[in-house]
UniProtKB/TrEMBL annotation:
Keyword vocabulary terms for this entry: Ribonucleoprotein, Ribosomal protein, RNA-binding, rRNA-binding
Name of the protein in its database record: Small ribosomal subunit protein uS14
Superkingdom of the source species: Bacteria
Any one of the GO CC terms: small ribosomal subunit
Complexes and interactors: Part of the 30S ribosomal subunit. Contacts proteins S3 and S10.
Biological function: Binds 16S rRNA, required for the assembly of 30S particles and may also be responsible for determining the conformation of the 16S rRNA at the A site.
Membership in a protein family: Belongs to the universal ribosomal protein uS14 family.
HAMAP family (UniProt xref): Ribosomal_uS14_1 (MF_00537)
A GO biological-process term: translation
Annotated NCBIfam families: PRK08881.1
Gene, per the UniProt record: rpsN
Gene Ontology terms for molecular function: rRNA binding; structural constituent of ribosome
Length: 101
C-alpha cells in the first residue's frame, strides 16, 4: 500500500490539471503561432511559466486504483501487476485466470 500522502498529492495534481487545462492550451497555442510577433509569443511564454508546475499533465503519475502503487500499472485496468494477479487468482476479473502447468 502506497503512502496516502503520495496518493493525495497525485489527486491534487489531477485537480490542478483540470483547472488550468483551458488556460494552458490557449497560451500554448499563442506560443506556437508563428504569425504573431515575438513580443506577444514571449509574453505568452512568461504567462505559461507563471502557471503552477503541478498544473501540467506530465506531472501526473499513473497509480493503481486499489493500492496506489506507482509502478507496473496497466493503463487499461488502472491496476498494478500485484493487484491484478491477486484479483485474477481469486477469479474477480472475468476471462482471466492465473496460468499453472
Amino acid at each position: 500500500m502506497a503512502k496516502t500522502s503520495a496518493v493525495q498529492k497525485n489527486k491534487h495534481r489531477e485537480q490542478l490539471v483540470a483547472r488550468f487545462a483551458n488556460k494552458r492550451a490557449a497560451l500554448k497555442a499563442v506560443v506556437d503561432d508563428r504569425e504573431l510577433s515575438p513580443e506577444e509569443r514571449f509574453a505568452a511564454t512568461l504567462k505559461l511559466a507563471a502557471l503552477p508546475r503541478n498544473g501540467s499533465k506530465t506531472r501526473i503519475r499513473n497509480r493503481c486504483a486499489l493500492t496506489g502503487r506507482p509502478r507496473a500499472v496497466y493503463r487499461k485496468l488502472q491496476l498494478c501487476r500485484v493487484a491484478l494477479r491477486d484479483l485474477a487468482s481469486q477469479g474477480q476479473i472475468p476471462g482471466m485466470t492465473k496460468s499453472s502447468w
